[in-house]
Write a structure and sequence with these properties.
Elements: H1 2-11, E1 13-20, E2 23-32, E3 37-42, E4 46-52, E5 57-65, H2 70-79, E6 80-87, E7 90-97, E8 105-114, E9 119-124, E10 129-134, E11 137-142, E12 147-152, E13 156-160, E14 165-170, E15 174-178, E16 183-188, E17 192-196, E18 201-206, E19 210-214, E20 219-224, E21 228-232, E22 237-242, E23 246-250, E24 255-260, E25 264-268, E26 273-278, E27 282-286, E28 291-295, E29 303-309, E30 312-316, E31 322-328, E32 336-338, E33 344-348, E34 356-363, E35 369-376, E36 379-383
Parallel strand pairs: 3-7, 3-9, 4-8, 4-10, 9-11, 10-12, 11-13, 12-14, 13-15, 14-16, 15-17, 16-18, 17-19, 18-20, 19-21, 20-22, 21-23, 22-24, 23-25, 24-26, 25-27, 26-28, 27-29, 28-30, 29-35, 30-36, 31-35, 32-36
Antiparallel strand pairs: 1-2, 2-5, 5-8, 6-7, 31-34, 33-34
């Protein structure tokens, strides 16, 4: 008897039904004992989880029915069954249909958990999801709603069938995936891996590198430490300062890079490129736009800049040690221009036919090769 009485408060649950505007609402409140993990699975509804200083897990669940009578509403409420229990050191909350689901019915889960929870595993088949102020690992999955995560201490794995994913501050690894929504990360102390079927991706500050992919949206990174690898099926790419190597690929958009301390590889099927503050060289190729590249003092490595139709402008730090080789296949009035006397330009071809213009030079005793090539366009070598 003493054991049963002690267990009642931990599993106590209260229910009430009330009218709210054009809908009927059943409100379920309850609590579960302190647990290391939370597992919440809902066949419908939105989920909100937030951490606090209390030792137990408390919940408020609001079922909402848009029927015309309380009797019909109660019938729908009974069909969507909520169970709350403890299994070992895991608190389990589940919402399941017992029969068919009505067309106009929603459910909202609001859960308060201890801040030092070890794991929050959350799943809903279609609603939104929000988690904040927990030090735990978070695994969040929704069939189509948006996901919002902030002030998360553990690693994050978040998936949505098509909604957006927004991450505020995260202290560990991120793995984010959505079928078509946008992805935004304000600050991540761990590595970022993010993929969307077609939305845009934005990272404000990544502390340990990022691998980002979208089927067609734009990609923006303001600052990132470590390796960066980004690809999009057709959107533009804008990257700020990167403290490591960079790999960039787009099916047709423009590319802008403010700076990289590691080597850079950039490819686009048709847009222009602007690559600045390159400390370890670059390999850049576009299917039809111009290229601007700035090489600063650093451990310069062999570099290639190439476009079939567009101008190429190269800024070189005066003290860089390198060899230069440049060519224009069909000049048609285009030429190679240089601020460096060591780069010698020559032209070949008949007076009235197409001409090829090329240039070679050795700067500061020579070093790794810089190759610059355009089929038709001007080439400029400028001092930084």
């Amino acid at each position: 008897m003493a054991f049963l009485l002690a267990a009642l408060p931990a599993l106590a649950q209260q229910t009430r039904v009330q009218r709210e505007g054009s809908s009927w609402v059943e409100i379920i409140t309850g609590s579960l004992p302190a647990s290391r993990s939370l597992r919440l699975s809902a066949q419908t509804g939105s989920i909100e989880v937030h951490g606090g200083d209390q030792p137990t897990i408390s919940y408020v669940i609001r079922k909402r029915s848009f029927t015309d009578s309380e009797r019909n509403a109660r019938r729908e409420f009974d069909s969507y069954r909520i169970t709350a229990r403890q299994s070992g050191d895991t608190a389990v909350i589940e919402g399941n249909w017992e029969g068919g689901s009505p067309r106009k019915f929603t459910a909202d889960y609001s859960i308060e958990v201890p801040r030092n929870l070890a794991l929050a595993k959350l799943e809903t088949q279609g609603g939104t999801m929000s988690v904040r102020d927990v030090s735990s690992r978070v695994e969040a999955s929704t069939g189509g709603g948006s996901v919002s995560l902030d002030r998360i201490g553990g690693s994050i794995k978040a998936e949505s069938g098509g909604g957006s994913i927004l991450v505020g501050t995260a202290s560990s690894e991120l793995r984010l995936e959505t079928g078509g929504g946008s992805i935004q990360v304000a600050m991540a102390k761990g590595p970022i891996q993010a993929e969307t079927g077609g939305g845009s991706i934005q990272v404000v500050n990544g502390m340990q590198g990022a691998v980002l992919s979208t089927g067609g949206g734009s990609i923006e990174i303001k600052r990132c430490q470590g390796r960066v690898k980004v690809s999009t099926g057709g959107g533009g790419i804008d990257i700020g300062e990167v403290d490591g190597p960079v790999e960039i690929e787009t099916g047709g958009g423009s590319i802008h890079l403010a700076g990289a301390k590691g080597p850079v590889r950039a490819e686009t099927a048709g847009g222009g490129m602007e690559l600045y503050n390159l400390a370890q060289g670059a390999r850049a190729e576009t299917g039809g736009g111009g290229i601007t590249a700035q090489f600063v003092n650093g451990p310069f490595t062999e570099s290639v800049l190439e476009t079939p139709s567009g101008d190429i402008t190269v800024y070189l730090a005066p003290s860089l040690r390198l060899n230069v080789r440049a060519a224009i296949d069909i000049s048609n009035g285009h030429s190679i221009h240089s601020d460096f006397a060591e780069i010698r330009v020559r032209s070949e071809g008949s007076e009235y036919g197409p001409k090829q213009v090329s240039a070679q030079g050795t700067l500061n005793g020579g070093g790794p090769m810089l190759k610059v090539h355009t089929t038709t366009g001007d080439i400029w070598f400028r001092k930084k």
